[in-house]
Design a protein that fits this description.
Layout (H helix, E strand, L loop, with lengths): L4 H25 L11 E4 L2 E2 L8 E2 L5 E4 H7 L3 E5 L4 E6 L2 E6 L4 E4 L2 E4 L5 E3 L2 E5 H7 L3 E5 L4 E5 L7 E4 L2 E4 L5 E4 L5 E4 L5 E4 L6 E5 L8 H12 L5 H11 L9 E8 L2 E7 L4 E7 L1
Parallel strand pairs: 1-13
Antiparallel strand pairs: 1-2, 3-4, 4-11, 5-6, 6-7, 7-8, 8-9, 10-11, 12-13, 14-15, 16-17, 17-18, 18-19, 19-22, 20-21, 21-22
Length: 282
């Protein structure tokens, strides 16, 4: 039996309704962006950074990516781009940071450090992982998930400091930076004090050269104490330095002694050579 006009109209309406319902279902199950790019805010020392066009975003590794020039300028750095190597260099005072597009590695003062994400090019802009860049310059980074806001505290205020663990290292014009035997970054102070990364980048090793006429021993002790007091109480630092003072010559043997305060475990000792103060962070 042929379909009547009424039946044809009903089928057309039914088909149109089905298409609409199917479209709604597709919209419902289609993954939507987790959040708008401009939903991520960045503050440096209490001042919000303005991103007028390319906006920061959270990448697939959970890291905040930002246009490199904006964050570099906010931290007082200058940016240089090598198109052939696809490498971005950020320089601030004595600190230079380099990253290559697509490579999960950051180079700070010629020391290669792994990252869990990589810089990318998006919207014709170079984006870099904010935390690694900021910490490379010694800044403290905090993330507020509730407000999707990054807070950066640049304690150095644009100077020449490098961060090892929780400690900020001054790098003066006559200080030198190099690699230790562990292939870790070390700062060789003009006074003779050596400050370096341990086997773990969050550990710090301080070496006071003794019985060496080419070094300023009182200045070394002063610098070592000032560095320790960044994170340790004056009382504990006085105890550490008093114990270290027992070693007066390179040949004196100072048995290892352990100290602990909060998150920090400290070992002080020394065989033939310098006094060595090692700090581990729990």
């Amino acid at each position: 039996m042929k379909n009547s006009p009424t039946t044809k109209v009903f089928k057309a309406v039914f088909a149109l309704t089905a298409v609409c319902l199917l479209s709604l279902a597709v919209i419902a199950v289609t993954p939507q962006p987790a959040a708008a790019a401009d939903d991520v805010k960045v503050f440096v020392n209490g001042q919000e950074i303005s991103f007028p066009d390319a906006k920061p975003f959270i990448d697939s590794n959970g890291r905040t990516q930002v246009p490199v020039r904006f964050v570099a300028n906010a931290l007082g750095g200058e940016v240089d781009w090598d198109p052939d190597a696809r490498r971005v260099d950020i320089e601030r005072g004595s600190i230079t940071i380099s990253m290559t597009i697509g490579v999960k590695e950051i180079v700070v003062l010629k020391v290669k450090k792994p990252m869990d994400t990589a810089p990318i090019i998006q919207e014709s802009r170079t984006f870099v992982p904010l935390r690694f860049v900021s910490e490379g310059f010694g800044a403290k980074v905090e993330w507020n998930a509730a407000t999707r806001t990054v807070y950066i505290t640049d304690a150095d205020g644009g100077g020449d400091k490098y961060k090892i663990g929780d400690f900020l290292i001054d790098i003066g014009p006559n200080d030198k930076v190099g690699l230790s035997t562990l292939n870790r970054l070390s700062v060789y102070k003009e006074s003779g004090l050596v400050i370096g990364e341990g086997s773990d980048a969050s550990n710090i090793i301080i070496q006071i050269q003794v019985d060496n006429p080419k070094t300023d021993i009182p200045k070394q002790r002063e610098e070592a104490a000032a560095l320790l007091k960044q994170c340790l109480s004056d009382k504990l630092v006085d105890e550490i330095m008093a114990y270290a003072d027992q070693k007066q010559t390179r040949s004196d043997k100072l048995e290892p002694k352990d100290f602990k305060e909060g998150r920090y475990e400290i070992e002080v000792g020394g065989g033939f050579g310098p006094i060595e103060i090692t700090i581990w962070i729990d």
